[in-house]
Amino acid sequence: MGLSARQLPVRLALYPDELLSSWIIRHAAFYAVPPLAMLQHCLPEIQSLRTADLDITESRVARIARMFSADPATVLRMTFSNITQSSRRLIASEPRQLCCSCSPITNELHPVLRSRFLGWRITCPLCGNLLQNADGGPRRSPFSRYHNSALMGEQLLDDEAERGMQNWMPPSEIARLLLMRRVPRPLPDRYEPSNYRVLGVIIPDLDDVLRVQNSKLPSRASTFLPLHLRPALLAGVAIVQRSGPEMLHMLRSHMMGENKARFGSAIDEIVDCARQSRTSSQLHLI
Ligand SMILES: [Zn+2]
What we know:
The protein is 45% helix and 1% strand. The chain has helices at 20-31, 35-40, 49-54, 58-67, 72-77, 147-163, 171-178, 199-202, 205-212, 230-243, 245-252, 257-285, and strands at 97-98, 132-133. The site of zinc ion (ZN) has 7 residues, from loops. Residues 9-100 form the TniQ domain. InterPro entries: TniQ.
């Protein structure tokens, strides 16, 4: 079937929370063209579907919306363009998790939901059920007793990522600091530095889980945790956010050397930055 017309003659129904690239891929299958050709039909300058998901401008959204005869606001909500810069490192490059109740089962190509990429979520934004590992990883989290705090942490990170809301410190920055290495006391016999993170001070089960289950945490640069370990980090974020900067200073005392200095300057910088942005928004209101 040719694609000469700008506006598509047939539009496939959207699934709730479907990602834009997924919708484009389903249309491409329907019209029997490569997915990128489908996208470039209205945006010839875009080189990947991932770019359309992550960084799409309003004018491009308008062009896509015109091709699909859809509402631009609806198209925009199918992307990650609204996600705050500080939370973007928590967007996976491929689907990592799924909600067994909401993942559509169809005879055609399966739609891919936006929530499958979000590294701060443990529950489905549509039905509230716990998300499951998509790659056959552990089904149960060893941190289920922190569930309520983890839900609060999920909400804080979601408010920051999706709606730009912040408190005295961006929750994604707290997550980053909590994953820095610390030095346990007394030093265990077989000391593996990457298994001891600041988070283990407030969620003591973490040290044991990492040691016994041989679970690996990502390197310092990434805060995207496997789904079964994520509740620990979310609960930690909620606890620190509630306790205030004093808790970060207490946590700093569990670190040594260069890490300690870096942690200290990160706290000062972030708290300062948050204070300045609060002051400027207050001045704006006067
Ligand atoms: Zn669901």
